[in-house]
Amino acid sequence: MQRRDYLLSQLDVLEAESIHIFREVAAEFERPVLLFSGGKDSLVMLRLAEKAFWPAPIPFPVMHVDTGHNFPEVIEFRDRRVGELGIRLVVASVQAAIDSGRVTEQKGRRASRNRLQITPLLDAIEEHRFDAAFGGARRDEEKARAKERVVSFRDEFGQWDPKNQRPELWNLFNTRITQGEHVRVFPLSNWTELDIWDYVRREGLALPSIYYAHTRRVFERDGLLLDAETGFANRGDDEPEFEATVRYRTVGDASCTGAVKSAAVTLDEVIEEIAATRITERGQTRADDRTSEAAMEDRKKEGYF
């Protein structure tokens, strides 16, 4: 009998694990939803969901918690990709929550709508009765995210308690919840930023243009290069704007997401750049996560991540 050796690459193993997670959750829960921003992690999740259920369509909608302070390139890309796949897009609007008095907009130079996403997210989960929300968080990004299980329980108030997590042995996921509760599911938990970019290259995935080097008007604050074109970052008179060649490692609220100086205009150049860096993308580009080491964990406990 002829012997065959089957060797899986790192990406093959990660892909298989993520596809298993998608299928397990789709089988166990009635109303899953995929949190989708148009960024690289959520685009990788979309491709994994496509593969998990092919040739059937993705059997759940996608949801974007829209701060209203997004990069226009990302919103255009989000809408185009959702249209190509023919899936339903649910938008949970921070601006609508502000207009209705559900949340109060922050004031001041460092004001951001990032934290305000919690209320519209939880409202949308309740309105649509979603019982499982796929998120693109990875354990390599930040200490609080490294504490998460793949299937992470949220109580009836949408809160996460790191001291009350359920056991998760190997690939055995605890999916039991009662009415009013839900789980967050992280199919990319074991991926790194470099894995994401390698997968983008392997799958030939298109990304928003701001992931690649381009000329942009920016200004410097606390060592970050913040966007000066959209006007969302509340630039002060003592923060002069200038042109620089930059790209974004992550895309989020333009008021607090910084760019990095870069000449990487191709996918291979971005991968080479990421392979050489020793700073996580959130540590290098997110102003709100620099306020304290507990900033991310606080928001997770409140119900956002």
Automatic annotation (TrEMBL):
Keyword annotations from UniProtKB, A to Z: ATP-binding, Nucleotide-binding, Nucleotidyltransferase, Transferase
Enzyme class: transferase
Residue intervals of the Phosphoadenosine phosphosulphate reductase domain: 32-258
One record GO biological process: sulfate assimilation
Keyword ATP-binding set for record: yes
Protein name per the record: Sulfate adenylyltransferase subunit 2
Domain of life: Bacteria
Protein encoded by which gene: cysD
Region of interest (Disordered), ranges: 282-305
Source organism of the structure: Actinomadura darangshiensis
Family, per entry: Belongs to the PAPS reductase family. CysD subfamily.
GO molecular function: ATP binding; sulfate adenylyltransferase (ATP) activity
InterPro entries in UniProt: PAPS_reduct_dom (IPR002500), Rossmann-like_a/b/a_fold (IPR014729), SO4_adenylTrfase_ssu (IPR011784), Sulfate_adenylyltrnsfr_sub2 (IPR050128)
Pfam families in alphabetical order: PAPS_reduct
EC number: 2.7.7.4
Keyword Iron in annotation: no
